[in-house]
Amino acid sequence: MITFTSTPERVAVGVGAGVDSGEVIVRAAWAGGRTVIRELSGVQPWRPRIVSRPGRVAIVALVSTRASLIAGDDVHLSVSVGPGAVLELVELGATLAHDARSGPPATIQTSLTVEPGGALIWCGEPLIAASGCDALRTTAAEVGFGGRLLLGDTVVLGRARERPGGISARTRIVCDGVPLIDETLDTRDLDTLGSAVVMGGRRLLRSLMLAGVLDDDPPEGSLRAHGPGMLWRSFEPAESDLAGVAARWRALVLGDTAGAEVA
Questions:
Q1: Domain count within the chain
Q2: pLDDT by residue (tens digit) across 114-141?
Q3: Cβ(211)–Cβ(173) under 8 Å?
Q4: Which residue range is the domain that position 35 belongs to?
């Protein structure tokens, strides 16, 4: 059973700048021999809630509070982890980019900062590109020396029996000043999207990105980055493969296995 609490050392809960925008902030630090949440703020489109599991790892859930993404949405998510702290983010449901309401594209800008010696784990729920949607998502991660990051991402091209709408999803990870991953998936050009060098007609893309630590026995489908990081990718629908790799790399991030080379 998962229970929630809203009593960190300090919690600031604020409303975004209107129905169509929201800013969500999560800040973790190491204090008193445990990871504490220094700040939680925001209510749209997620309300961050602490999962009551005190200790070395703090767990925060991003709980959806309304339908998203809709044209005109402007969402900012900022997550920071201080030296020595360990934070895990979880989501309780997928994000659906809707074909609803005319206006500018919906945007999600996510900033992740892991300070030296800190660790962040976030294996997010799927982003679904519904037919007719228009959305821009950018995820930028900065990992300091000795920091570690596990970032998971799943993109689904449309709901059942429909073609995907327009999504541009960019992910950039920099570790100790070295760019590890910088890539963009754009679904607007369906011919290129369906080519053999991109999706090849497949409708689901699962990715796991590891920064700050290396796997000395990498699973099938993984690549080593140009620096202290790795990338695993699969087009198959089986969640068991994703869960297996995620569990292994989560242990590496937490330092719970001897099979890692720490950068």
A1: 1
A2: 999 999 999 989 999 998 899 999 999 9
A3: yes
A4: 4-258
